[in-house]
Design goal:
The protein has 33 helices and ten strands. It is mainly α and 732 residues long.
Length: 732
Amino acid sequence: MKHIENRLENCNINDYIGGNQTSNFYISMLQDKEREFVITYNTNIRPVSYFTGREMELQELRQKIDRKCKAVLVSGMGGIGKTHICRKLFEEYYRKGKDKNGSFSYIGYVEYNGDMGSSLQKCLRYKEQKHPEANLEAAWKELEYLASRGKLLLFVDNVNVSIEKDPGLERLKKIPGAIILTSRRRTFSKEFEPYRIGFLSTEQCKELYKKIQIENDGKKVKKEELSDLEYVINELTARHTITIEFLAHLASTKSWSVKKLREKLEMNGFQLEYMDEEDKLVNIQNSFETLYDLSELTKAEKNILEAFSIFPYIPLSNEVCNWWLLSDAGVKESENILVKLYRKGWLQFDIERESYTLHPVFAQFIYTKCRPRIEEHFGLIKECKLTLKILNNASVAICQFYILFAKNIIQKIKMKEDREQVDFIIALAYLLNYITQYKEAKEWYERSIYIGERILGKEDLYVAIAYNNLAGVYENQGEYEKAEELYETSINIFESVEGEFHLDTANSYNNLASIYMKRGEYKKAENLYEKSLQIRKKVLGEENLTTANSYNNLAGIYMRQGDYQKAEELYERSIYICKKILGEKNLETAIRYNNLGNGYERQKEYKKAEELYKKSLQIREEILGEKHSATATGYNNLGSVYEQQGKYREAEELYEKSLQIREEVLGEFHPDTIISYYNLAGVYQSQGKYKMAFTYYLKLYKIFSCKLGVEHPYAQIIYKNIEIIYSKLKNL
């Protein structure tokens, strides 16, 4: 991590880049080299893996998209699976684009929230403006520019209002390119070609019903039952694919013949209707409520379904379902409650992924009827919160997958506004901050502060923690003045509630010191690190791991001030404590070896640094394995020492190894991955591999300008390097 800091210190800052004047604001635009194939933040759009009877519809939609139709409207009744058809298409074209085989230069997925403008602003990658009031227009200008290039594919999911009620939709229809909207409206406007989905032929529906019947209980549909089956398919279910699936499962569970199923449907007044001529929205939920009776479920089954009604419509693995849900339901894994709910027709099971989902039709029905309460789902909340925590052996990508589940739990379950909720929100915000989703992290931390101050008081420890963590978000974005202000607020609360000589107060001193260190105010940082150290020594004792951390941090300050002897003494002291408590081969000792190695590297004592980096790396490989982010840091730092000695091939090999792990474990936007991009670009540049260097510098510029803005010093530094490399490429 040190290596990128050294590179950045010696670079110049460029002037402001780009712009476009409109309305009363100066709208600054992204540059072409900043834009990516996926133009929205929604890159992890995944459909269910099963598409029974949908291949013909998918193929027809592909043809419309490939012909660059101006717009396509996917229409149908509620619960028909429109979203997952769009997700399937997005996934296909996304893969084609990544493989350079696609016919589109830009692809995006927008989740409609009732207003096209605000939906676009939330989902689209565009240049944040100096004046927040100009951001909406900036988003539209970005989309219009991308469309003008002639190769735009845009998905807009769940447009639930008429075009007359949303001026943004009027503006959208004028934009060229292939645009797919999902909606339950049969007509929209003449610019949008209607395409109806979800209705198979009678023969296809019969085959689907027979297949499910055989899979469930091995029984075949008798010849004398075919007329009743055709009646059910054509007259009662309107050949609606998902309804046929559900009814086949239901009949099998109840051991109903087709005739019995028909009788039950007619007795309950079950009959799906097409949309009428006035284009009224028709939802199949009411029809299903007549067949699926919650009173027939056990208390445990009802508890499981309540939890699923809160979740997003995303497959959740069988293992995680058991982990999250069984304790609240009061059942054991051996009771196979999830399998029973699947066989009864409530849950959907994805064999390929070994995962369960609850269809939105049932989810809305159950959620409306039951309104899940926190008292019934403490286990779910506890376990979901644990999945948000990034442990030493956890993949960030795995933790990241559960963000949507956590958001839904917070927003949908009847949680009390108490410490538990604040703690849950803080855990979610921490993960968002860790994966560099800073904007969302800020919003959730601010929400935790708002709730905390209102119900717990302004001088509550949870509020102090939220202020401290929010400061960390600003620190990660380089907004040190704002971070300093928030750290000081948290310190004031900790000092007031717990006193000056408390560990929380010491931790806050430590965090504020890091701000001063990054701003080069080393004396201020030194004083606070020293203050934190004295508290930790008094409370925890001399030979404690937290005290050892303070020695480590104080050593770093002395190192930056060039007092290498003091720094070395403190690093050695920190190493001694760690080895005494944990032994030679532990991660804490490995970190100290690494930091002392960094000190020797700064002094250009590369052989000593190399020896310590190797010792640190060996411990990490033995304990964590090669595919771990901490091991990747070891490869990166050893590569740095090789590069400093001019051993570029060895450095390149280690940097590439580090990057491969970081991309896989942390994702491409994580700060450590960004450091790997930078270091690789530098070592390629040193070897004259300018094309490779240009590729990584360009990637870095896109990340920095998107996350921090093009005016941020890091973005400007990278842009300067791009100019240098580009000039060299021109002269080749």
